[in-house]
Amino acid sequence: MAEGKIVKALSGFYYVLSEGTVTQCRGRGNFRKNKITPLVGDHVEFQADNVTDGYILKVFERKNELVRPPIANVDQAILVFSASEPDFSTTLLDRFLVLIESKEIDPLICITKMDLLTEEEMGRIHRYADDYRRMGYEVLTTSSKTEQGVKELAPYLRDKISVFAGQSGVGKSSLLNALDPELDLKTAMISSHLGRGKHTTRHVELIHVDGGLVADTPGFSSLDFTELDESDLPLCFPEMVTASEACKFRGCLHVNEPKCAVKEKVEAGDIPAYRYDHYLSFHQEIKERKPRY
């Protein structure tokens, strides 16, 4: 018996990495009965007589799991957004951040194509970057030259399981390909009339890149808040979590409640108004969501 990590799942087989060797395994017969589906990223116990014929006996508890892409135990999400072509969107960034915070995954914001901006536009993006840094997020700003992005990103990958996500058509696949040319992910041109790219996803696989493991498929194809309740949302805005300690009511939702410290911070300019606007809009979306049966 040995322990390892699933690095690939394909056609009912699981490929488990243990001490530098990958073993092809099947799941135990009772997994299906017990509704256990092993995922890429799972830490498992397995038994094998040789590298092509093993069985997964146990899936250890996960710290998180994503549905699309189906992957578990993710340490960080690298959110790739462009400063231009397509334009930088704080609304979309905040949507990603909420989903990532809800899964307790560390986000790393990477804003690319800074060299395509005028001085005035660059100032605006730097102000946004500073806002997010004040909220406690790590933010990288890089040029459209993929090599620079790679150089900046590489140290963050070490010893972690990372997924790439973010705006479509910003070059996530190009960045991944540059990090490891053998990946050869299918890159897609921006479909300009839609303002977003098309990517083709196959199976999920974790690939060794710069001392860490990276999922070879851009993540989060679904951006709906289907798993979030109203009370979860404030916990996904770190600057509100800190401010809410001074709210009059415990469990304050920062919408209509009196003596709300979050609203006071927004009025004072300590929390950016656009962040609070996005919060209200997401809150409304969750409130109006049809109940699931």
UniProtKB/TrEMBL annotation:
GO terms for molecular function: GTP binding; GTPase activity; metal ion binding; rRNA binding. Keywords: Cytoplasm, GTP-binding, Hydrolase, Metal-binding, Nucleotide-binding, Ribosome biogenesis, RNA-binding, rRNA-binding, Zinc. CDD domains: S1_YloQ_GTPase, YjeQ_EngC. One of several proteins that assist in the late maturation steps of the functional core of the 30S ribosomal subunit. Helps release RbfA from mature subunits. May play a role in the assembly of ribosomal proteins into the subunit. Circularly permuted GTPase that catalyzes slow GTP hydrolysis, GTPase activity is stimulated by the 30S ribosomal subunit. Gene3D superfamilies: Nucleic acid-binding proteins, P-loop containing nucleotide triphosphate hydrolases, Probable gtpase engc, domain 3. Its cofactor is Zn(2+). This is Small ribosomal subunit biogenesis GTPase RsgA. It comes from Rossellomorea marisflavi. Binds 1 zinc ion per subunit. Belongs to the TRAFAC class YlqF/YawG GTPase family. RsgA subfamily.
